[in-house]
Specification:
The protein is 37% helix and 29% strand. With 252 residues, it is of the alpha+beta class. The protein is built from seven helices and eight strands; from the N terminus they run αβαββααββαββααβ. It is globular. It has two domains: 98 residues, Alpha-Beta Plaits (2-Layer Sandwich); 123 residues, Alpha-Beta Plaits (2-Layer Sandwich), CATH 3.30.70.100.
Length: 252
């Protein structure tokens, strides 16, 4: 009832898209190591790559691996002033004689990375400032990706802005960042990506169970779906992956 009254009074917009937040460009990169090469990949980042990224103007945000990692995957997040800065930084990094030497040395026993994926992101207007924070004991993280039904990314944003984030906090989840894909990325009009922190994987499961049972959430979800004429996400449109930070990550 409270939600409906606020909507009628015009004091709260559940579904309106907020202004685009001017700020950094983020790049989420995913590396798949060749079999048995993940530790060598970690060593290369720990001893060389992270320092060279910083040297060339890239900001190391965080480095993670899945808790269950049969694909020997590394996920990391970098930040730049803008896309032009990104291109300049990578060009300088790849031309750096030190990096060329590192690559040659690290490949003496075989190529480390089988394949790499990259996606460019911008912060939503409701994202907290993404910043380094190390906590003891180290937390686990949850990378979640939502694919919306056509035309409903703004409604999903509104639900997060006005309800979901506050309820996540209420139920013990920490916010790292919330992003949209940049306009030139595939799926940009229908994708929300965000990263949460939990005390443990078990704590995350417990937090989400309490969140889903919360009457405020149930009411907000129902109101948003009534407005949209159905679910805000496509079938199987919510993906979740539990990650743990590497020892060289600036977010742990």
């Amino acid at each position: 009832m409270k939600i409906l009254m606020l909507m009628l009074l015009g004091t709260v917009s559940l579904f309106a898209e907020g202004p685009v937040k001017a700020g950094r460009v983020y790049e989420m990169r995913t590396y798949f190591a060749n079999p048995g090469k993940l530790e060598a990949l970690h060593a290369r980042f720990r001893d060389h790559t992270c320092k060279l990224f910083e040297k060339h103007g890239m900001e190391n945000i965080g480095y993670w691996v899945p808790v269950e990692n049969p694909q020997e995957k590394l996920v990391y997040l970098l930040a730049y002033a803008d896309r032009a800065a990104r291109e300049a930084s990578w060009k300088a990094f790849q031309a750096d004689p030190v990096w060329k030497g590192v690559i040659e040395e690290s490949h003496k026993d075989g190529v480390i990375v089988a394949r790499a994926e990259s996606v460019f992101l911008t912060e939503t207007d409701f994202s907290p400032e993404v910043k380094a924070q190390v906590m003891e004991p180290a937390r686990v993280f949850e990378l979640r990706t939502y694919t919306t039904t056509k035309g409903n990314l703004g409604r999903l944003d509104g639900r997060f802005r006005d309800h979901t984030m506050g309820l996540f906090s209420k139920h013990g989840m920490g916010h790292i960042g919330y992003w949209h894909l940049m306009a030139d990325q595939k799926g940009a009009e229908e994708t929300l990506v965000y990263l949460l922190a939990h005390r443990s994987a078990e704590a995350g499961v417990e937090s989400f169970a309490k969140f889903r049972a919360d009457p405020v959430w149930i009411e907000a979800k129902a109101a948003s779906e009534k407005e949209a004429g159905g679910s805000l996400t496509v079938p199987d449109g919510v993906k979740s992956e539990i990650l743990k930070p590497t020892d060289y990550s600036s977010i742990r």
